[in-house]
Amino acid sequence: MKTKTSYRTYSCGELREKNVGEEIKLSGYVDTIRDMGGILFIDLRDYYGITQVVVSDSESATDFAARIPLESTIQVSRKG
Question: Are 76 and 64 a contacting pair, CB within 8 Å?
Answer without folding.
Answer: no
